[in-house]
Structure formats: C-alpha cells, structure tokens
Amino acid sequence: MKDTIFPWLYHGQHSHHKDDIPFWLNLANQSGGPLLELACGTGRVLAALAQAGYMAYGLDREAGMLGVLQKTLPEGVSQSIQVFQADMSAFHLYRQFPLILLACNTFGTLPHPTRQAMLACVCRHLLPGGTFATSLPNPEVLRSLPEKADPEFEEVFYHPLSGNPVEVNCGWQRTEKQIIFHWIYDHLFPNGIVERVSIETCQDLAPVKDYEGEIHEAGLSLEILLGDFDGDEYNPDSPNLILVARR
Fold it and tell me: Distance (Å, rounded) from C-alpha 46 to C-alpha 24?
C-alpha cells in the first residue's frame, strides 16, 4: 500500500522545491541534449528540463514514482520525455548522452558498492567529454548533527489528489557511518481522520575525499566541487556537496 500512497506524498512535498532547477538547466545549456536523469522520481527536474526544450530521458526503479510522473506531466512536454523503469546501478539504454544527472540527494543514499556500479553505468552512457553531475547533503554538516533527534515539524503541503493538508515531521539517528532520517507524513482529512505514512531514508557519512575518489576510480575527471546551487565553492560548512565530473 505504501508503494502507491508514498509517490503522491513525495510529489506533493517536492514538486514546489525549485531552488536547484536553474543549476541543472545551466548544465543542460552547457552540454546540450538529449540528457538522462537517474532516479528521476515523479519528474520534478525532468519536466523542467523538457519544458526548457531538451529531450529528457528519465530512469527510476519505482513504478509508482514513474506512474505519478506520467500523470502529472505539464501540458505539451510528453513528446520530449521518455522514462524507463530500471535500477540505476544495472541499466543499458543502448545510447550515450552529453549529460547525466543524479539530483535530489540520491547519491548519498546509495551504499558504496551501489555507487560504484552506478558510476560504471554512467561512464558507459556518457559521450566522450560528457558531463555527470550529482548533489547530496554535505556529509561534514550531517556528521556534526546530534546523534539523535525526535521527529519535529518540518513543513506542510497540500496533497495533490485530495487537496487536504499533509504535515511533515522529521527526526534522525546518527551512527559513525550513516544518518537515518525518520519521516512522518500525516494526511489530515476534514472528518478528523489522519492517514499516517512513515518512511526512512539514509545518508552515507563518507568523507568528501571518498566521494571524490569514487569519481576518479570510475574513470571520470572531477571538474567542479560546489557547496550550493548558487555556484559557491565547497567548504565544510556548505549546505550541499555538488560534484560535476567529465568523462
């Protein structure tokens, strides 16, 4: 049941977060299309790229996410988007791209062996001179958080289907190597019923140099290391870790 309910919650929560969209569009302007987004989810980034005129390919392993994507595409972009259900660490699309993206903090959720396999797939699908870019929360900042935090209110959004408010609370448990976030979504109905969905996500706390090393080991050349989507240079206090590499 969670597989059908959560994609709509995910879409409702994230579809209005657009601070990073200009960054991905700028990369697309530099690289040209067509482009590929891994773990495209419900299409927040993919749709924006298609609306900008690019032929955009999306890949995600969750059928529920892709189902919401196809139902919520902006008018006029369906011909510019192709999506595939596949594992980003084991896929073959029989073509190469000048740009491959992995947005939305997904890179840090992958265990080290999965990241290695995914980067190998990326190399096979990048044109010579092509660009790979990914973003994740700064692991140095995550490592500095308290070991545990009980769920606290994060935000409220309106459910894409019902129009009812959904309250989001988040807490975490940090270990030496990872931090596990506990997300609670309370879908509030007018009759007082609360439909609760709980989700866990995990971020690896590997040092920044480890992520850099994985990029190099995959055969990519790290071009840029940024700390936010405004293009500022990375430092240990930056909110993000953004890696831009070239084949």
Answer: 10
